[in-house]
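Morning - pyridoxal-5'-phosphate inputs below, output right after.
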Amino acid sequence: MLPGPTNVPNRVMRAMLAPIINHRSDDFVELYTDVVSKTQQVFETQNDIVALSASGTGAVEAGVVNIVKKDDKVIIPVNGEFSNRLSQLIEGQGANVIRLETPPGENATFDQVKEAFDNNNDVKAFYVVHNETSTGTMVNYLDKVSDLTSRNDSMYIVDSVSLLGGASLPVDKWNIDVCMTGSQKAIAAPPGISPISISPKAKKYMIENPPATMYFNLARYFKYYEESKHTPFTPALPLLYAYREALSILLEEGLENVFNRHKICSDALYAGLSALGLTPFAKEEDRSITIVALNYLDGLEDKTFRNTLAQKFRVLVAGGFGNLKGKVFRVGCMGEVQRYHVMRTISSIASTLDMMGYDVDAKAGLKIAEEKLKDL
Ligand SMILES: Cc1ncc(COP(=O)(O)O)c(C=O)c1O
C-alpha cells in the first residue's frame, strides 16, 4: 500500500523474462511501437510518445530542459515536495518563476492561477504537479487550464507521475502539451520506464530549440522514431516488456473500469480510516484519489506504527516528507488495488492501533468501507 512503487502482478513480472533482443531489430520495432500505441491509449492522446528508460524524475527533467530557457516566465503552483522540486528544476534553467504557494494539503485555486495569468501576458509555460504525492492532494481543474494557456500560446505541462492510470487524464481533450508519468505507480509496472507525451506544438519547439543535453534531448528521440521506430540509446528491455504487459492489463480491464475501481477503493479507504478516528491531511475538495494521507493520532509514533503494521500484518505504508515526517502517514491506493487491499489495510491499521493502546472502532471502519465497496 505504498504511494509507489506499487504491487506488480505476476504476469508483468514474468514478461521480464523475454529475451534480450537487438534494439536495432524488427523485434524491437514491434515491441516499441506497441508500447507507444498502448501509452497513447492510456494518456488518451494521439500525440508523440517517448518512453524513457529512467525513473519518473527523468521524464520530469526532460519535460523541463526541453522547454524552459533562461529568463522564460513560468507559472507553477507549489504545495509540497514534488511541486517544490519541479519548481527548483525550472529555476535551475535560469527561468523567471512565479510560484503560487499554498500550505501543504491545499491546492492553489483555479482563480489564483487565472489571476497569475491575468497579471502576466508573457508566460512561456504553466507547469503543474497533478497529484502532490507528499501530501495527498490532487488538482481538479486541469480541464480548464488550457483556457488560460491558449491566451498567449503558452505551453501546458503536467507531472502526473502519481496519478496517470488511476484517473482519467485526457491529454488531447485538455490540450496538455507535455505530460509525464512513471511506470511504478498506477500503471503497476516495476520502476524504470517514464513515458512522456508531447504535442505537435511542443515537439516543433523542442526540435527548433534543443537543450544542451544528450540523454534527455527529446528531439533525438523523435528523429530515431521517425527514421526507424528505434530509441537513440539502449533501452531497458526487460522493463519495457513489463511496462507493455502492465498497459495491456489496464486496457483489458478497460480504462473506465480501472478509474472506477481506483475511485471506489479510495472512497472506501478515506471513509474506513476516518471511522477509526484518523483524519485525512488534505482539505476535502483537494483530496487525492491515489494517495490517502492521514494525520497521526496524538502520541502515535511513526516508526513504531509503521514497523508494527509491516511486521505483524505485512502492510506497508509510507511516512511523511520533510516537516510532515512523524505527523502524517500515506497509504497508496493505486495499481492492483482491490477490495481485498482496502479491507485488509483498514483491519490491519485498526489492529495495530489497538495493540498500541488506542481505542478504535474497527467494526465501524470495516462496515463503512464495505458499503463503499459494494459497487466493485
Ligand atoms: C508527483 C511526482 N513527481 C515526480 C516523482 C519522481 O519520480 P521517481 O521517484 O520515479 O523519480 C514522484 C515520485 O514519487 C512523484 O510522486
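Note: The chain is about 40% helix and 15% strand.

O.
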